[in-house]
Amino acid sequence: MENFEEKRISLGRLRIASPLVLAPMAGYTDSPFRRIARTHGAGFTVTELISAEGIVRGNAKTKKLLIFTESERPIGIQIFGNDVNVMETAAQIVETFLPDFIDINMGCCAPKVCNVGMGAALLKDVTLLGKIAKKVVRAVHVPVSAKIRLGWDFTNLNYREVIHALEDSGVDFITVHGRTRSQMFSGKSDWNAISQIASFSKVPIIGNGDIASYAEAIARLKESNCAAVMIGRGAIGNPWIFSGKLPTFEERIKQIIHHIDLMISMYGEYGIILMRKHLVKYIHGFRGAALFRNQLLHAKERNEVIFLLQQMQDEYIKYNVTA
Ligand SMILES: Cc1cc2nc3c(=O)[nH]c(=O)nc-3n(C[C@H](O)[C@H](O)[C@H](O)COP(=O)(O)O)c2cc1C
Is the CB of 231 under 6 A from ligand 1? Predict the structure, then answer.
């Protein structure tokens, strides 16, 4: 396992201890998941995308998304929008929550975001994209970053132009997801393009897309000239991806229970329902998981889930002793 602690990594003004960082993921990277990712060594965490307009309007639901605990640091708050002034004001409000950096979403592919000219749609208007980044950088004292895709589609692979506009704006670092918006999540993240960007960009680049293991993360980091690599889906149900540690079965079960408890403390009993999408990933590939999967996904109370997990563990031990 690599020892990154000795050399802290500089992402502009932001310093991190590990170059393996957690990706923002709507509906997943909430406070419990961010705490877990940091416990396992993620270099930083980020909130999910948060509407700049919602922030400025003081929307109560939006405000909740801005809250984090000290154990999630270094943490970035990600905002999205396409109005220069709204983005400026939102960034100033966000700064009062004291994040370690503010990230601007310029890569979200969801139709409800892109259809109103936000997220990845900004890649189609590089002048506006540059203005937004510049305004946000000037509005706050904390480091600012941007997260982009390679372009809108394959006929508009304008990442060079986008990177230069972002360099000029003064952002501290840029995360590149190696897909176009038109790809959504299909095909593969283009790590050749990411490496190329990392070699010409004047600001540090974080490469992102399809990293499924710790070994892969280290390989991508070494091959790509990137200052860091970002992991999203690969961390769901597998926070050990940040440390390279191989957990025992018991450690996995302990981790799941800890996650459930964090969810309950944040959302009450509804946390069990929200936990389901994590549970599926945690138990994916477990021998005998199919037997319990359905019941686990229908359980509504903590005791029920714990009981099923214990049964799973007993089955696992029995199998390993008798196998
Ligand atoms: C469920 C889900 C939600 C996501 N939400 C966000 C988001 O809020 N902001 C953002 O910049 N990217 C978002 N992304 C994109 C990820 O940050 C990342 O760029 C993408 O998943 C590729 O990385 P991966 O292959 O490691 O998952 C989301 C991805 C997924 C799968």
Answer: yes
How many domains does the chain divide into?
2
Question: 200 and 257 in one domain?
Answer: no
- The rounded Å distance from CA 61 to ligand 1 centre is 21
Residue with tokens 């890569």: 107
Contact indicator for 119, 108 with CB cutoff of 8 Å: yes
For residue 176, give the CATH number of its domain.
Answer: 3.20.20.70
294 and 223 both lie in a single domain: no
Answer whether 103 contacts ligand 1 (Cβ < 6 A).
Answer: no
Ligand 1 midpoint to CA 24 (Å) = 6
The reply to whether ligand 1 has any atom less than 6 angstroms from the CB of 148 is: no
Q: How far is the CA of 291 from the centre of ligand 1 (A)?
A: 30
Rounded Cα gap, residues 136 and 143, in angstroms: 10
Q: In whole angstroms, what is the distance from residue 92 CA to residue 225 CA? A: 33
Q: Note down the domain range covering 268.
A: 249-322
**CB under 8 Å to 89, separation ≥6 — which residues?**
52, 55, 56, 139
Question: CA 7, CA 228: separation in Å to the nearest integer?
Answer: 13
pLDDT tens track of the chain, all 323 residues? Answer: 666 655 789 999 999 999 999 999 999 999 999 999 999 999 999 999 999 999 999 999 999 999 999 999 999 999 999 999 999 999 999 999 999 999 999 999 999 999 999 999 999 999 999 999 999 999 999 999 999 999 999 999 999 999 999 999 999 999 999 999 999 999 999 999 999 999 999 999 999 999 999 999 999 999 999 999 999 999 999 999 999 999 998 999 999 999 999 999 999 999 999 999 999 999 988 777 888 889 999 999 999 999 999 998 888 777 776 54
Residues 265 and 210 in one domain: no
**Where residue 256 sits, what CATH number does that domain have?**
1.10.1200
Active site residue 114: no
Give domain status of residue 144, yes or no: yes
220 lines ligand 1 (CB under 6 A): no
In a domain? residue 1: no
